[in-house]
Amino acid sequence: MFAVSSRTMFYSMGVPLMKLVSFSLKQGSKYYGNVDNGPTFFIGSRVSYRDGKGLMNLSGDDPKQRYDRNVFRGKYGFWADFIHPTAMSEGALFHTLNTYDRARFTFSFLQFAAHVPDGDFVIYLRRLLALPLAAEYFPDLKLVNGRVHRVRDGVEAALESATTTEPLLDYFNPTLKEIEDTEVIQAARLIHWVQNDVAHRELQIEVGIKIFKNAMFHYAKRYALDGTKDVVCLIIADIRHQGRARDPEIIHALSESDPISALLKIGDSQYPDRIKVLVKEIHDLREDGTLGKRIYNLATRDFVLI
Known about the structure:
Helices cover 41% and strands 24% of the residues. By secondary structure, it is of the alpha+beta class. It has 2 domains: 2-58 and 93-202, no CATH class; 209-305, no CATH class. The strands form 3 sheets. Strands 1-2-3-4-5-6-7-8 form an 8-stranded antiparallel sheet. Strands 9-10-11 form a 3-stranded antiparallel sheet. Helix 4 packs antiparallel against helix 8 (198-222) and helix 7 crosses helix 8 (198-222). The longest helix is centred in the last third of the chain and has 25 residues, at 198-222. The protein starts with a strand and ends with a strand. The model is unreliable at 5-16 (pLDDT under 50).
């Protein structure tokens, strides 16, 4: 076992706000952390994927750390149900973590991915930096003209733009070749924050649903989905969220006599476990009457009862 700690400091009105983040490696592959000498928490397991190495965290049995559509339906209506199958497929835990694939850093119950310029993780991080605890967890980050910047030794530098997030990836996970201390510490900050701040968890839901709503409007125009059943729309939204198919495959599947079956076959050989979860969750939502009663209406940018 070894331990590493990192202290960050930020001065606000002359008063230092700081978090002492420590972590240790146990059992050869499991990273645990604590913040300000508080309770120990699980950060992630060391995993290998293709030629890379990274962290994975899909562990947790605390109900408040897991997405529950029933809790958020009152605020978000059918959209809380619409994102449910994708959330279950992505891990559903607010601290779901993956740093081992080409995205280099994904986090949240929907696994927002940091490699996409102006993508879901970037949108999420910008919103996070407006929360009251942001200065304690990420004192070196700030928004400048709507973009995430890092302040180091008094110098500001943009971490993301409309064309790249490479500096942001370096900030959260420098490489896939090895698991760096930086990668573990940044993951620990986000995990501890979301596990101990309800505002952070609620922000994940708000951002996730807003992203799906905006995306669905564009999919409806791109794939002519005005008046299309909710199940078909949900599968397309999930395909695009994971990025497992491009437009030609989706358009071809929609032209089939059974578009639902055709869409569910996309990626089933490469991602069998994910598709299995997706199929189960869709089946359950159809059985309880949640799915199958609505169509997408382009004019209202929402689902309406048939």
